[in-house]
Write a structure and sequence with these properties.
Chain A is α/β, with parallel strands linked by helices. Helices cover about 35% and strands about 20% of the residues of chain A. In chain A, helix 1 crosses helix 11 and helix 5 packs antiparallel against helix 12. Chains in contact: A-B, A-C, A-D, B-C, B-D, C-D.
Chain lengths: ~375, ~375, ~375, ~375
C-alpha cells in the first residue's frame, strides 16, 4: 500500500537562492513529500512571488506566523519544515517549529554558536521530533558503502585521514558586487556566524570524515586565513587532527582554490587498506589493499543493502548530487512516519544526520576558531 | 505565474520494470507533470497493485480503455501518456492515444518495423500532437553542448566518428531463468522485434552520434552476432559507416562485454579538433584541438545557454541519468503547452527527440539487418 | 660474471630521424650493447656527421660495404645490426646482413610486400640468426602480463577484440613542406610501400591484439581512406574482424585524429572478464570481471615473473616507451648469446617479436588492401 | 663533434641496492657517462662481485682509497662520483671526493645534520666542483614546465600549496625481517640520520614544492609520528606551512599509507589559476584557470624550450622515472664540462639541484624536528 505523501513547508529559499530549489527537487524525487506551505522570503512580496513560482499553496510572510498557523490547521498542516535560510536563522526558526510540534529538516551549520546548537539539540530530544541536518554528501550510496567498509574492518585500524573541500567561487571579492545573494550573506558574519569557509564547507568535510571513519578527533591544530582583501570572514582553513586511537589527519577547506568547483575529497588509510572518494565523481569509490591493486567500486555494483537503499538506477546510469540530497528526504520520511506512529526508527534510515551531528559540527567550528586564535595550539575537543 | 502541472498517464512500467520508475522520477523532478492515470500491466491485478504503489489515482486494466476513458474525461483527462511497454506495443499504444488526441512520450525503439514507424510518424503529424522519443542521453547538458560545438564549427569538418555502447548484463543466458523480466522480453523477438542489442542500445549509439554530429551515414556495412548459445536475437553489433561528406565511422554495441556497465561513448574528430563524451561520466566533455591539449569542459562551467537550460545545480555538483531523463520531460512540457496554445515550439525545447528520430532509428535497424544478412555488403541508407 | 656487451651496428637513423636515436637509447639502457659501427645515411657526409655525433667508431657510406667489412673483421665485427631505414630498405638490408652472418634487429613493417617478407623469413631460418622485429609495445611489462592473463584463462573464452591506434600528426599535408623527413618518406609509396597509416601504425595495432589475445583473425572486412587532399597513401583504416573461435573484433587506425598523440589502445572481452590497455598510460592495466569492479593493475605490483623480467624500477616509479623498447634489446641480447652458444633460446626472451610476426603483419596489410579494393568484402586470411 | 663520455665512479649501490642500478641506467641513457670505477660495498667481496656484475673496470674495497687512487691516475681518473650510500655516509664520502678534486653527484638527503651539510656546501663552493643532488622529480619535463608557468605569472600570486608523498612499503615492520636491506638502513637512525620518512620522502615533497613555486616557507608547524610499533624513526609527517607572501600550505608524507605506491603529488593555487602534478603520471600536468576548464598539458606538446631540453621522445610516447633521473645526469654533464673548461654553466642546465638545495632540505628537516618536539609550535625558518 502506498504511503501518503508527507506535507512539507519551507522557510527561506526564495527566488535567487540556490539551495531552496535543490531542497524542493530533492523532496520531490522520491515522491514522499508534497510542498504545501512556505515563508520563502523575509520580503513579503518576494515571498509571495517565490511561493507562486514554486507552486506552493499557502504562502506566509513570516515564519513565526507560519509555525503557528500550520500547527493550528486541522489535519492538513505541514508534517515537516525545511529550513533553508542564512545560518543565523537556523536556530530560531527550528525552535519555533519544534515548539509547534513540527518535524525539522535543516541546512548546516546547525546554528551560529555551540550554545545555540546545544539548546536546539536538547529541545529536539524533548519534543521527540525529527531533526535532520542536510549533510548532503552522506546521502551518496558509495559514501554509505565506504562507512560500511570501515565499520566491517576491511581497512583494518585507521591510521590516516585526509579530507579536503576546495572551491574557487569566492576567489575574488564578489560579495561587494551586491548582485550575488549567496556571496553576500555567506561572507557576512552577522548572517553567517563567525565561520565563513569553515562553517560553509569545512563542516561538510569534517562530517564526511566522521561519517565514514566513525571517529572524531580528540584534538586539532588549526589556522584560519582570509585571502581576499576586505573580506570579513575566513575563506581558507587548514588543520591537523589527532584521533583517540592514535590516527592522524589533515583537513583543508578553501573557497579561493582557483579551478576547483566543488572538490570534496576524502582518503582514509588503515592498516589493511585505504579508500578514496571524490564528491565530483560520486559513482565510484576506490579501495586499495596494502601492497595491492586499486579497485574501482561502482554505485550499483557493490554488494551492499545499505548502498542499495540509497540507489535508484542500475549500474552505469550515473546518479548525482540531487539523488544524494533526495536520499536525506527519503530517510527523513521513513523516520517521520515511525516517530508519528510511535515505532522505532527503521534501521535503513539511521544514517541520516541529526541535530547531534550539527552539535559536533559546531564543536569543530569552536575548536578551529580557538586553535587558530591561539596560533595553532592543539585544542582538545570535548566530543559528545 | 506558475504553470499548472500537466497530467500524465503511463502505459507499462508495472512492478519489476526498471524503466517505468525512471520515467516517474524523471517526470516528477522538474515538477511539470503529475502522474494521475495508468495501465501499468497487462495483468489486471498487477496493474492495480503497481498503480497503488506508485500513488496513481486512476488505474486501468487495459490501455485501449484508458485512452478512451481519459479522452472522455471532462477537463481533467491526461495531457500526455508515457509509453514504457515492451517494443512491440509502442506503435499500437501510441496510435491509440494519438487517435484519442493525447500527447505521447514513448520509449525507443519507436516500433518493431520501419513501416509501422512511418505510419506512426504520419499520424503524429496529422494529429499535431507531441511525439517525444526518450533518447535519454540527448538530455545531458554536455551532449547538447557537444552538438553546439560541432554546429558552430569548432571541430572543423568532421572526419571520423567513433561510437560504442557496451554492457555486460546479457553475457550469460539469464533470459532462461524466468526471473529476469527485462532479459525475458528484450531477447524475445516476438516482444522486442527483430533487433536485440541493435534495437535496445545500438539505436541509442546511433542517435547520439547523429545528434551530436548533425550527420547521418549514407551507407553502412554491418554484422550482427549472437554470442550466447540459445539466444534468439543478436547480442552484439558492429558496423562501419560512410557519411555524405566523406567522413568515416565505426559503431559497436554489445551486451556481452564483460565488465561494462552502461558504457555509451562517442568520439568525433574534425579537421580542427575532437571531442569525447562518456555517458558514465556525464559531467565532463573533452575537447582537444589538433596538435593541442585536451580541455575538460564541465557541466555548469561551459558558457552555453543550451547547456544551462539542461542544468539544475551549480558546477561541481554532479547531475546524472535521471536529470538527463527529466530534461526530456521538461522539454516535452514546454512543447505540450505551446502546442495546446497554438504557439510555435519554444526554441530551447527543440533538441527533444521526435518521432522522426524514431523513424531514423528504424532505418538504421533495417540497414544493419540488411547488410548483416548480405555478409556485410555496404547498404545505402535512404535518410528522410 | 658479467657478460660482455654485444657489438651493435646501425643502418639508417642519421640526423633528423627520430627512430635511430630511440634505438640507440634503448640498446644502451640495459647495457647489453655497444654501438660501434653504422651506415647512418645514404648521404656520405651526413652519414659521417651522424656517426660522429652518435659516438660511433666505424662509419660506412654504404650498408652493403658495412655488411661485408664487419663480417670480415677479426673477432670484433658487429654481432648484430639495427635496421632503422625507410620501409623499402628493410628487406634488402636485412638480407645483406643475414647473408653476412650477422643478427638482425629490424623496424616494422618487415618489408614492403608479402613475397619479400616471406623470402626474408626463409633466409633467417636458414641462417639461424636472430631476426627481431621492433614491435615496441610488446615490450611493456603490462602488455606481457595481459597476454599471460589471457593465456591463463582469466578472461575465459575471448569474444570481442577492440583495438585502435590514433594519431594526429598527419592531419594536414605536412609532407609537402619538404621539412618533415618523417612525413616525407612515410607518405611516399615508393619509400614506405603501398600501406601508409596501415603499415605504419595499423600493423602495431594488429600485432598488439594478436600478441595479447594469442589469436589472429580468420577473415576481415576493411576500408582504407585518405582524408588529406593530395596525399598519395592511406591515412586512415577501419576494419571488422572475425576470429576462428567465433570472436569478433574491430580495428581502427588513423593519423588524422585531431588531438590524438599516440593513442594505441586495446580492449579484450572474454566470457569471464575483460582487460584494457592504453599505451599512453603503460604503467596500468585494467582488469574487470563480468559483473564486477575494475581493478587497476600496476606495473611492479602484479605478481608475474614475465612482467618482472620486463621491469626495471619499483612500483610507482613510472617506466615508459624507452624502457619497453629497451626490453626488446634485452631479449635480443639473451637470444643472440644463446644462438651463438648453440643453446636453446631462454624462455624469458621468447616474447620478442620475430620475422614470423613480420610476415603476419604483411599478411594483414595484404588482406586489408584486398578487402578495401573489393569494397569491404570479407577477405579470408591464410595465417601461417 | 661528439663530446667524450665523462668517466664516472660510484660509491655504494652494490647488489641488492635499488638506487645504485637506477643511477647506472640514468647515467647511461643519454650517453654522457661511462662507469669505470666503484666502491660498491663496504664488504670487499660483495664490492668485487657487484663491480663485476655492473661491468666496472676498477673496483675498490674502500671509498677513501678510491678517491685517492682515482685522483692520482694520469688522465683517465674519474671525472665525477655518484654517491648512493646510506645517508650517514653522504657527507664523509662527498668530502673525500671534493677534496680529491672530483665532481660529486649525491643522493638526498645531503647529510644527516644541518651542520654537516653546511660544511659540505662551503667545501663545494671552495673547490668549485659540481655538487648535484638527485632530486629526481625535478628532472621531469612537466615539473620544469610547471615551474616556468609559475615564474611567468600564469598562476598569478600563489595562495595555496598542497604537497604530499605517500607510500605503503613500510606499513609493516619489515625492517625486523633482516632481509630487506632498504628497510633496514632507512629505519635505523644511526644510518639514516634522525629523520625517517621525513628525510627519505618528506624532503622530496618539500623540494618539489620549492622548485615549482620558487618559494620556501617562512615558518611551519609540524608533527612527526611513528605508526609501526617498535620502529625507531618516524614513518609519517604532517605540516602546515606559511610563506613570506602570505600563502599557506600543507605537506604530508607517509610510508604507511596502504595502497600508495610512490604518490608524490603537488597542487599549487594562485589568484589566476592552479596546477596539479602527480609523479605517477608524469606525462601530464593539469592547468586550470580560475572559474575555467582544466587543461591537460602533455609532455612533448607543451611549447617550452625548458621542457624540450628534458624530453627524449615525441608526444604520446611516455617517459618515466629513469628519464627524469637521466636528465639530472645530462645536466650534470653539461655543468662538469663547463666547469672543467672554465665556462659559465649553460643556462639550460641550471635547474639541476645543488648542494644549496640540500642545505635547504636539511633546514626543513631541522624545522620539522623542532616544531614536532615543541608540540607543533610554529617554527621560523632561516632560509638561505
Amino acid at each position: 500500500m502506498p504511503q501518503r505523501r508527507l506535507r512539507l513547508g519551507m522557510v527561506g529559499g526564495g527566488q535567487g537562492a540556490f539551495i531552496g530549489a535543490v531542497h524542493r527537487m530533492a523532496a520531490r524525487l522520491d515522491d514522499r513529500f508534497e510542498l504545501v506551505a512556505g515563508a520563502l522570503s523575509s520580503d513579503p512580496k518576494r515571498a509571495q512571488a517565490s511561493a507562486a513560482e514554486a507552486g506552493i499553496a499557502r504562502s506566509y510572510a513570516d515564519w513565526r506566523e507560519m509555525a503557528r498557523a500550520e500547527a493550528a490547521r486541522d489535519g492538513d498542516g505541514i508534517d515537516a519544515v525545511a529550513i533553508v535560510t542564512p545560518n543565523y536563522l537556523h536556530a530560531p526558526v527550528a525552535t519555533a517549529f519544534l515548539e509547534a510540534g513540527i518535524h525539522v529538516v535543516c541546512d548546516k551549520p546547525l546554528a551560529i554558536s555551540l550554545t545555540e546548537g546545544e539548546a536546539l539539540a536538547k529541545l529536539a530530544r524533548e519534543k521527540n521530533k525529527l531533526f535532520a541536518l542536510t549533510h548532503t554528501y552522506s546521502g551518496y550510496p558509495l559514501v554509505r558503502h565506504a562507512r560500511e567498509l570501515v565499520e566491517s574492518g576491511s581497512l583494518g585500524e585507521i591510521r590516516v585521514v585526509q579530507v579536503e573541500y576546495a572551491q574557487d567561487w569566492l576567489a575574488e571579492p564578489i560579495e561587494t558586487s551586491g548582485t550575488n545573494k549567496q556571496a553576500g550573506w555567506r561572507t557576512d558574519p552577522s548572517l553567517a556566524g563567525p565561520a565563513g569557509c569553515l562553517g560553509d564547507i569545512g563542516t561538510h568535510a569534517y562530517h564526511l570524515a566522521a561519517f565514514i571513519t566513525g571517529m572524531m578527533p580528540s584534538s586539532l591544530s588549526a589556522e584560519l586565513h582570509t585571502f581576499v582583501p576586505g573580506r570579513r570572514i575566513d575563506d581558507h582553513v587548514q588543520a591537523m587532527l589527532r584521533y583517540p586511537n592514535g590516527a592522524r589527519g589533515m583537513l583543508w577547506a578553501s573557497q579561493v582554490a582557483s579551478g576547483a568547483e566543488n572538490a570534496l575529497r576524502l582518503r582514509v588509510y588503515g592498516t589493511k587498506a585505504s579508500l578514496a572518494f571524490d564528491q565530483e565523481n560520486p559513482n565510484e569509490l576506490w579501495f586499495t589493499p596494502l601492497g595491492g591493486s586499486a579497485e574501482r567500486l561502482t554505485r550499483g555494483r557493490v554488494k551492499s543493502a545499505i548502498a542499495a537503499h540509497a540507489t535508484r538506477v542500475p549500474p552505469g546510469h550515473p546518479e548525482g548530487y540531487l539523488e544524494a540530497f533526495a536520499q536525506l528526504y527519503k530517510d527523513a520520511a521513513l523516520q517521520i512516519e515511525a516517530l508519528d506512529a510511535g515505532r522505532p526508527l527503521p534501521a535503513e534510515s539511521l544514517l541520516l544526520a541529526t541535530v547531534d551531528d550539527g552539535v559536533a559540527g559546531l564543536r569543530f567550528i569552536d575548536a578551529v576558531l580557538a586553535s587558530s586564535a591561539a596560533d595553532g595550539q592543539w585544542h582538545e575537543m570535548a566530543n559528545g
